[in-house]
Design goal:
The chain is of the alpha/beta class. Helices cover about 45% and strands about 15% of the residues. The protein has helices at about 10-20, 35-40, 50-60, 70-75, 100-110, 125-140, 160-165, 175-185, 185-190, 200-230, 235-245, 265-280, 285-310, 335-345, 360, 375-380, 390-395, 400-405, 420-425, and strands spanning about 5, 25-30, 65-70, 80-85, 115-120, 145-150, 170-175, 195-200, 315-320, 350-355, 370, 385, 410, 430. It binds nicotinamide-adenine-dinucleotide (NAD). The site of nicotinamide-adenine-dinucleotide has 27 residues, from helix 1 and helix 5.
């Protein structure tokens, strides 16, 4: 079994580290944020991710998983080092790889034996060369390493399942030795006949961006189809069903909504588009997906205004759902941010509720009125908006909802409420790409 160090203990690093330790390897998860490591050492999980607590506990108790802020020591003791730090968007649209570069320098300085250096962070095509260069510049003579790109495809909300049962594992390795070591790391998956795709580094880096951008494109496409459905009286859900039953298309990522958010699609599409322009091969489809997504977010704000029949000044709006998707506490680039900001900008008030993400959103909107249930968030409001399709909103008691709201106006940006029931109880409502009762 290998000694593995994962640098960066966020959504990807923590899930990957815990998952790899579950394969039987000895894993150290390292991060520079002391408070995060302290929590983990105390048996607490800093993020919300179904099944993660159990996975971490199991492997900590088995003595295979530990946490540290001593990044240098963690590098020295490892056979394989995974880089899983953040790569947020820069002001110019490119991915900011400064954290990756900083880790590469530390790896160079602490390269005391042959190691495989493996990047899991999503990095622009060509970053592998930069990382290798930085390691070489910082290492003492005789240091030896191989470089691998191993992009991660897990989805927040089902990250543990996605990591342990992936559709495929992409390993971009230019040396057979490194590829074989990586195969050993993933051996338990390999035994289960999960396909391992061996590519060169640039191809592996490209696969990640091409896959994410394609999924974003699919979402923007169905959102535009939904908008046209509204104009012609079609139902986007049946359209999506009819499309998805075609095996060439598949039903995944054909759900209309308020525009994609999260920590990946917005920044990865921007980085991909920016890189393509830089290389003189602009990707017009991705530019269009980004533009459509921005328009979709604004469109939701306009829909709410139409429903209310005025701007937001003096109005109180209940916002249900803050996370960018259900089963996560991640609010990065969530569509709810633009909705809330627009309401506040026009002098409206917001009562917000998310089953898990109230705390995360406090980092963005410090003074918002955060409530502990949907009933509280809808009490006395002029309108209610569903921004995230949490299960508890799907089953909400509409009779009760009507009773607590000041005015029965509902904007369901996730199309999770029954239109028949909304009509039956006398709501005026709107949604995305379906029948509207205004
Ligand atoms: N979140 C996802 O669903 C997802 C899925 C696939 C790929 N990715 C990619 O994986 C990467 C990580 O994403 P994330 O969502 O886990 O990010 P995150 O922000 O949740 O976690 C990053 C962690 O890296 C730590 N870090 C930063 N600099 C460090 C350093 N020098 N040394 C040690 N630790 C350091 C931070 O403290 C933080 O805990 C990104 O490139 C992202 O695009 C994310």
């Amino acid at each position: 079994m290998k000694k593995i160090t994962v640098i960066g203990t966020g959504y990807v690093g923590l899930v990957s580290g815990a998952g790899i330790s579950d394969f039987g390897h000895h894993v150290t998860c390292a991060d520079i944020i002391e408070s995060k490591i302290r929590l983990l050492k105390n048996g607490e999980i800093p993020i919300y991710e179904p099944g993660l607590h159990e996975l971490v506990d199991r492997n900590v108790n088995a003595g295979r998983l530990s946490f540290t802020t001593k990044v240098d020591e963690a590098i020295q003791q490892a056979d394989v080092i995974f880089i899983a730090v953040g790569t947020p968007q820069s002001d110019n649209g490119e991915a900011n790889i400064s954290a990756v570069e900083s880790v590469a320098k530390s790896i160079g300085k602490n390269l005391n034996s042959y190691k495989v250096i493996c990047t899991k962070s999503t990095v622009p095509i060509g970053t592998g060369n930069i990382i290798c260069e930085l390691i070489r510049e910082n290492m003492v003579d005789g240091g030896e390493f191989d470089y691998v790109s191993n992009p991660e495809f897990l989805r927040e909300g089902s990250a543990v399942k996605d990591f342990l049962w992936p559709d495929r594992v992409v390993i971009g390795a230019s040396s057979t030795k490194a590829f074989n070591i990586m195969q050993d790391v993933y051996r338990p998956l390999y035994v289960n006949e999960k396909p391992i795709l061996h590519t060169n580094v640039a191809t592996a880096e490209m696969i990640k961006y091409a896959a994410n951008a394609f999924l974003a494109l699919k979402i923007s496409y169905i959102n535009e189809v939904a908008n046209l459905c509204e104009a012609v009286g079609a139902d986007v859900h049946l359209v999506a069903k009819g499309m998805g039953q075609d095996g060439r298309i598949s039903s995944k990522f054909l759900h209309p909504g308020p525009g994609f958010g999260g920590s990946c699609f917005p920044k990865d599409t921007q980085a991909f588009a920016t890189l393509s322009r830089k290389k003189g091969v602009p990707m017009n489809t991705i530019d269009a997906a980004i533009t459509t997504n921005n328009i979709q977010k604004t469109r939701m704000v306009e829909k709410l205004k139409n429903l209310i029949g005025s701007d937001f000044s003096g109005k109180t709006i209940g916002i249900l759902g803050l996370a960018f998707k259900p089963n996560t506490d991640d609010v990065r680039e969530s569509s709810s941010i633009e909705m809330i900001q627009s309401i506040l900008d026009e002098g409206g008030k917001v009562k917000a509720y998310d089953p898990i993400a109230n705390k995360s959103m406090q980092n963005i909107f410090t003074d918002l009125n955060y409530l502990h249930s949907w009933e509280e968030a809808c009490d006395g409001v002029d309108a209610m908006v569903i921004m995230t399709e949490w299960n508890e909103f799907r089953g909400m008691n509409l009779k009760k909802l009507k009773k607590v709201m000041k005015t029965p106006l509902v904007l369901d940006t996730r199309n999770i409420l029954s239109m028949d029931k909304l009509s039956e109880y006398g709501f005026q409502f709107d949604n995305v790409g379906r029948k509207t009762v205004l």
